[in-house]
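Hi L.,

You mentioned the student needs an example of a multi-chain input paired with its predicted structure. This one should do, with 341 residues in total across all chains.
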Amino acid sequence: MAKAVGEVIIDIEKCKGCELCIEACPEDTLALANAINKKGYRYAEVVANNCTGCANCAIICPDACITVYRLIMKKIA
Amino acid sequence: MSEIPTIEINKETIIKPENLVYKPPKTLFDTPMHYCPGCGHSTVHKIFMEVVEEMGIENDIIGVAPVGCSVFAYYYMNVDMQEAAHGRACAVATGIKRVLPDKFVFTYQGDGDFAAIGTAESIHAANRGENFLVIFINNAVYGMTSGQMAPTTLYDMVSTTTPYGRDPKIHGHPFKITDLIAQLPGAVYVTRQSVHTTANVRKAKKALRKALEIQKLNLGFQLVEIVSNCPSNWRMTPLESLKFIEEQMLPFYPLGDLKVPEGI
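Structure written out for the whole complex:
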């Protein structure tokens, strides 16, 4: 079975810390950071290495600050 | 082949243009939006601009911005936009569509703009069967002016002007303008969607695309109502507001197509 590995890039200056991506993530890859961005919001960050690149976080993100990459392992093997 | 080649997986091997699955649309300006954290307005801006980018019509679409929270829609959507007086977006869009009939035209309105002050313009544009798309964001309060009761406010819902909840004997009944417009022969595509879960965001995006495709066929008025949230004025966290949509808004405003042209 093909295994998918993903990577999300979060534009932390656009993030407002609404936590919708954290709720939408089925793998619990994301969490709120303890640090804050320029506007004073705690931003979302990647805390685990288990992203599958499903892009649920990016689809629900109201501020369009998430970019998602996905690599299907079958392609390489 | 006896051996399966092993490749080290790291950030560099994943982050490549060919592995891209989602990036914000180019038709949306790369600027932070003024909306509150978790607001559905920005989600709708994003999915609509994705549709515009996917259809490749960014040079052939003209939008009309309303008055309300989304008054600055023209700062975020990288398409031609026109601002209208409060509630008059449908009247302005009628003019634009009649002068430039080969362009796509849409208005982006909230419940205060579309269903309160602009009711006459909205209903008559629908009844005339004007061929443009209305994106109607229903969040049950007047967001920009700090959460007063709107026509769409639910029964018993607390707002700043109904501190004891909306009582139909005093404040009247919630106004389902989408159901009303579905009765009119001029309206051809009327649907109600929501943006409170990932699945619903995808469905709302499909509905917006379908509306623009219907506009291309020159059939008549298209209305896409999107049930949205207002965490600040509902006095909730963004996650609580999504739960409120699921539990309180959707039983009163059921999702789905109210009217679809035959054969589409």
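You could point out the following to them. The domain at 4-72 of chain A is CATH 3.30.70.20 (Alpha-Beta Plaits). Chain A has three helices and four strands.

Best wishes,
N.
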